[in-house]
From TrEMBL:
Disordered: region residues: 88-179
A Pfam family matched in the record: PGA_cap
Composition bias type Low complexity, residue spans: 131-143
Entry keywords, A to Z: Membrane, Transmembrane, Transmembrane helix
Organism ancestry: Bacteria, Bacillati, Bacillota, Bacilli, Bacillales
Source organism of the structure: Paenibacillus terrae
Name of this protein: Poly-gamma-glutamate biosynthesis protein
């Protein structure tokens, strides 16, 4: 006897439900495994990335403690020639505060009575310092918040003859075989700030005063980069633990952009002088003036990210990092505005490697070394070599407020310190000497270097006479390894 049709239908329904149930169980198990795998990957990635910024904070504390415990210790070894020493003790005695730049700015902030390095930086309680270059920042993309490419403002036609004696041939270089090779011409200058007595002079003479002797040099090249050693803000709260606290007017950036300076490094020991609010204002004003920035940002991802610029078909990557920070909490974190630290180089080296995959030319601006000292600190050589090993084509340094030597490593140039450019004037003559560093680079990343000496007067770089300029060029050569020479025209070569 056959079962009723209703019973057959019921059996089919039960079988279908069992199949659907099994499918749901399998689907849920697969999803669960995927979620566990993603969490595991994220944990490993986050742990690895965060360790570099934890190390940054730890090394920063150790170094500043060592400075406090052994102030005035002996000079470190370096690849520069043995007959070059630090700025003399007699010169340093002219400014007993030593560590910072401007003796004549000593009274700008009378409430600030402690030197930058007088105490080790406090370890921040904000765990964002240790959260690294995380992709979970949630608000920053590769160039988030940074200004657009201002290449349209540059005169890149290279047509016509310039009357500016500082200008060099742009665009095309003729090779020894008579063929033309496409190049870009870049200029690098040292520290700029528009605070205190500098600001007083600019208010009197105009904010274009610093650039009166430069002509069209920066407007005619392909890219000009400076180290912005000041927050630009009308607000902010001045740091209480520093002798020298800077704060510059937004009017200064309008003139800076008009002079042809396209990009600035923010990874330094003054950009947070007016706190987080001052840094965020600086980013805003830079964007309003179409000035690109690198080395700091609203979070770690933005601070460490390469900033890409297009010039004459070249894709150029700019990165900035600092080995000088007054406090550990200046490190950018996942949700913490700040700078790209280099006490541990893991994060910045990773960013350089990423830039190498994307760009024709990779440039790193580093803040490092010891103020008013021409002898290199060991970390300057170690970091510069690590940056080049990771893919940098050019490394440009600053912070010492004096010129230092140059080195060619694996065919790539390192300028260890560019000195001051637009700054207050101290009582130490070595801080008055500066130069414009010109790099002419091919698409393959091969760069030639040339220096044009200037004297850094109060708020204005002034060209040097031939004898003075020759002395500066000879000094840079003497501070460089023995295989580096500097010609009478400023051309730097390595044997």
């Amino acid at each position: 006897m056959y079962p009723p049709r209703s019973q057959k239908n019921e059996g089919r329904k039960k079988a279908r439900k069992r199949k659907i149930g099994k499918a749901w169980i399998i689907t849920n198990l697969v999803l669960l495994l995927m979620i566990v795998g993603l969490f595991g990957y994220y944990y490993i990635f986050e742990h690895r990335e965060s360790s570099s910024l934890v190390e940054n904070a730890g090394l920063l504390q150790q170094e500043n403690k060592a400075k406090t415990d052994s102030a005035g210790g002996g000079q470190s070894s370096s690849p520069i020639r043995e007959n070059v020493t630090a700025v003399s003790n007699e010169q340093l005695d002219n400014n007993p505060n030593g560590d910072e730049q401007a003796a004549d700015d000593k009274t700008e902030h009378p409430s600030d009575t402690t030197k930058d390095t007088a105490r080790p930086p406090a370890t921040t309680s904000d765990t964002n310092v240790a959260e690294g270059n995380s992709s979970e920042s949630g608000e920053s993309s590769e160039n988030a918040g940074q200004s657009p490419d201002r290449s349209s403002n540059k005169d890149v036609s290279n047509s016509g003859n310039s009357t500016d004696p500082n200008e060099s041939e742009q665009g095309k270089n003729v090779a020894s075989d008579g063929t033309a090779s496409q190049t870009v011409t870049l200029h690098f200058v040292g520290d700029v700030q528009f605070s205190g007595k500098v600001e007083q002079r600019l208010e009197k003479n105009g904010f274009d005063f610093p650039y009166q002797y430069l002509g069209n040099l920066f407007r005619k090249d392909d890219l000009t980069i400076a180290n912005l050693e000041t927050p630009v803000t009308t607000g902010g709260v001045g740091a209480l633990n520093k002798t020298y606290v800077y704060k510059s007017s937004p009017k200064a950036l309008t003139a800076l952009a008009a002079a042809g300076i396209d990009a600035v490094n923010l990874a330094n020991n003054h950009i947070l002088d007016q706190g987080t609010a001052g840094l965020l204002d600086t980013l805003k004003y830079l964007k309003e003036n179409d000035i690109a920035y690198t080395g700091a940002g609203r979070n770690a991802k933005e601070a460490y990210a390469p900033h890409y610029l297009e010039r004459k078909g070249f894709k150029i990557a700019l990165l900035g990092a600092t080995r000088v920070m007054p406090e550990a909490h200046w490190n950018a974190g996942t949700k913490q505005p700040g700078v790209a630290g280099a006490y541990d180089s893991t994060a910045i080296v990773k960013s350089i490697r990423e830039a190498r995959k994307q760009a024709d030319l990779v440039i790193v601006i580093a803040h490092w070394g010891k103020e008013r000292v021409t002898v290199l600190e060991p970390h300057q050589t170690e970091l510069s070599h690590a940056f080049i090993d990771a893919g940098a084509d050019l490394v440009i340094g600053g912070h010492p407020h004096v010129l230092q030597g140059m080195e060619q490593y694996k065919g790539k140039w390192i300028a260890y310190s560019t000195g001051n450019f637009i700054f207050s004037k101290s009582t130490v003559p070595a801080t008055w000497d500066t130069a414009i560093f010109q790099a002419t680079c091919t698409r393959a990343g091969a760069c030639s270097m040339k220096l044009t000496p200037y004297r850094a007067e109060l708020g204005q770089p002034v060209p040097m006479k031939d004898a003075e300029a020759s002395k500066i060029l000879q000094g840079v050569a003497a501070m460089s390894p023995a295989n580096v020479s500097v010609g009478a025209d400023g051309t730097v070569t390595a044997r």
